[in-house]
Amino acid sequence: MRRYDVAISVAVEDNEVAKMIVAELEKLHVKYYYYEVQEDISWGEDLIGLTMDAYGKHTRYVLLITSKIFVTKYWSDIEKQIALTRLQRGYILQLRLDDTSVDGISKHVVYKDWKNNPEEIAKLLHQKVRRKKRLVRDRWLRISTFFSVLLATVLIWGLLLGWEKNIVKKVLVVSANDTFYISSVEVTVAAYREYCMRERKAFPAQPVNSCDDGPIRNITWSEAKTYCEAIGGRLPEETEWEYAALAGKNTTYSGGTSAVTVAVYHKVKPAKIGSKKPNAWGIFDMTGNVAEWCDDWADSTNTTKVVKGGGYDSSINPVNELAVSYRRAERPDERLQDVGFRVVWDKKN
Predict the structure, then answer these.
(1) Does the domain spanning 169-346 belong to CATH 3.90.1580.10?
(2) Which residues of 282-297 are buried (b: 16+ CB within 10 A; e: fewer)?
């Protein structure tokens, strides 16, 4: 259930603008989240969880009061990234104090400029909230009890099945020369964001079509390596990656000979992790979705790193970029929209 009609994200230096808008929202009985006012709610709460709830599942809209100061602030960036990944397009509202561009906010999305007009801004927010609530109410009134129960049942089973599939598991891999564990899925946007919050690291901007259950992207090789080490693991070596991908089979792709069955490819964005058939060892997305960093250098000059698996934008003709044997070479400092990673752990005797 939504606790707030609107959550306000603003730099501390721009608080006076937020306070004027909040005063007008109170007159209109619009429920809002603004950290300076809700100190009684925040006190004693986990800051990371509170932020994820306030700017994600507990609000209808997020109001970003952006400025040249806003784009430099750590928590403003966290709040913006949570909103971008958890809210649908049209629910993030930008109020510009100046014309500073903001990563992740398209210049083609309609915005409002601040003109010392808190009453106008509050009324517009009130109208959007009322319109949304009316649409939601009308929609539910048109649904019969039978179809409501049926839909709820289908959704619950879908969530349960999806949750079971997307649980991160350590899959034991035993070869003649090595024994290790490998993650059953690629590292997700949600997992990487929580790591950044926990370690107080900057969260890299994600493409606008990303989602929490999708693979993290725009990650450098060093950032992927550091994440792995932070949870007691490491990046896979190329030979380990290929061995785990084939799962003891002699197939072109990880999980079979049909790319359509096992891979998300020739698309404009990746899918949620575990959307396709796993290989024989229960490992998902080693073919397609996003390509994956490996630990090895790809060349003798130590200039590029090995990338394996192909991604959502890969093709199979004229070169089969999805084949397990195919390798890419990318600079380790590059941020690539089709490259993510997964974790390997050494087996302790």
Answers:
(1) yes
(2) ebbbbbbbbbbbbbbe
Q: Exposed, middle or buried, 148 (CB in 10 Å: 0-12/13-18/19+)?
A: exposed
Tokens of 345: 């752990």
Spell out the per-residue pLDDT of the chain, length 349, in tens. 568 899 999 999 999 999 999 999 999 999 999 987 776 667 777 788 888 888 887 888 999 999 999 999 998 999 998 888 877 778 899 999 999 999 988 888 999 999 999 999 999 999 998 888 887 776 666 665 666 666 666 555 544 444 444 456 899 998 878 899 999 999 999 999 999 999 999 999 999 999 999 999 999 999 999 999 999 999 999 999 999 999 999 999 999 999 999 999 999 999 999 999 999 999 999 999 999 999 999 999 999 999 999 999 999 999 999 999 999 999 999 999 999 999 999 987 5
Domain at 4-140, CATH class: alpha beta
| Per-domain residue ranges of the chain | 4-140, 169-346
For residue 117, what are the CA distances in angstroms to 24, 27, 120? Answer: 10, 15, 6
